[in-house]
User: Fold Mur ligase family protein from Mesorhizobium argentiipisi.
Amino acid sequence: MVKVRLREIRNDLGWRLRRYRANRARAQSKAVFIGITGSSGKSTATSLLGHILAGHGTVHTQVLANTLNALVRTLYKRMKRVGEFDYVVFEAGAYEPGSIRGMAQMLKPDVALVTMIRLEHVGKFRTLEAVAQEKRALVDALEPGGIAVLNCDDPYVLAMAAGAKCRIATFGQFGNADYRVTDVYAAYPELLRLSLHWRGGVLDIRAPFPGEQFWLPVAAAAAAALELGVPAEKVVARLASFEPLPNRCKVQKTDGGPQFLVDTAKAPWHSIDLALDMMAKARAARKCIVLGQISDYVGSTRKYGTAYGIARDIAEEVIYTGDNAHRSRASQADRDSGRFVELRTPKEVSDHIKQTAVPGELILLKSSSNLHLERIALAWTHDVRCWIPACGKKEDCQTCGLFDVPFQEHKSFVADRRLERRKDRLGRLLGRLGFRRRS
Assistant:
């Protein structure tokens, strides 16, 4: 009991020390700090803005790892040398009430960008108003000289301008946006294009996204970059050269096989229509939709049936997988004809697609991250051997890197790899000291 208590005290003191160092590093840094939040689009907007600014100065972009722990680690490890970066772009995620406020107070952003407000983490927030109040903390942390870049198409986001002490820059498709988006078009294989109207004229923007819904993070990042003084021609060029994030509607092509739209990072209910609309507008010889776990919705699980009703009119084949695969409400006729297929595990889906896919077929993989449906696409180019239905890991399979190792061997594999790295470090140290390894 005493040992447990001592460990708790040591951990608490360590956390306090890291926070102190992080706050000191933030105070000493001369970088422009940019915080980005929102219910969807924030990871892509963060990566896009970081990519644009990297052509204009030195940048540290913190994406996906979007908690207070990640911010503390970034500040006290990365900001040790004053002047190391011109810009720090940080994605702030809300996972419970108060989570954004703590990050905002430490980040002290010069720019705050908010993409949209949707119902997320339903068990914690319950209402859209609660989500909006949480996200607003990033805007409230701005000083009078700061800039809030807000989506004026979203009333919950636009309301954050009321009472703000800083300058406001709005973007959107409607109203009197400072950065107004028109002529949005994408129909895969034709990728996203749009026009951005601003005080400097009109920008014709191309970005490597297969769906029209990506206009929002593109416009958000462009607006923030232009507000920060990046030349318009550089903004356009950097957007065109961006490499999309893995598993966020990223296209994966295979030689002589199908093409995958991999959208497996998250699947809140409000995103399902967007993904299905993207598939409806896409052009392909044949279409298949694989739907896994849907998240962040209130009410019954009948939404799986609603999604199937839309998907069956878009694709020649719809596959449901995961614990809710039986909730499709697909007719027996659809099951008998093969229009609907119910498969419980990602491995079964992968085997089925390998047997039935035709060259040029377009396959959408849409699910929350817990099922790791990205393995289905990876299996066309790699020897995927980790097929546990739900591994419990939060990072995607590409980040984990162990998809070619059976799940039950992960711990021993990681331990062996760690031991090899220690041996290599010891060898290098001994080499510097003048010792030679025995052959």
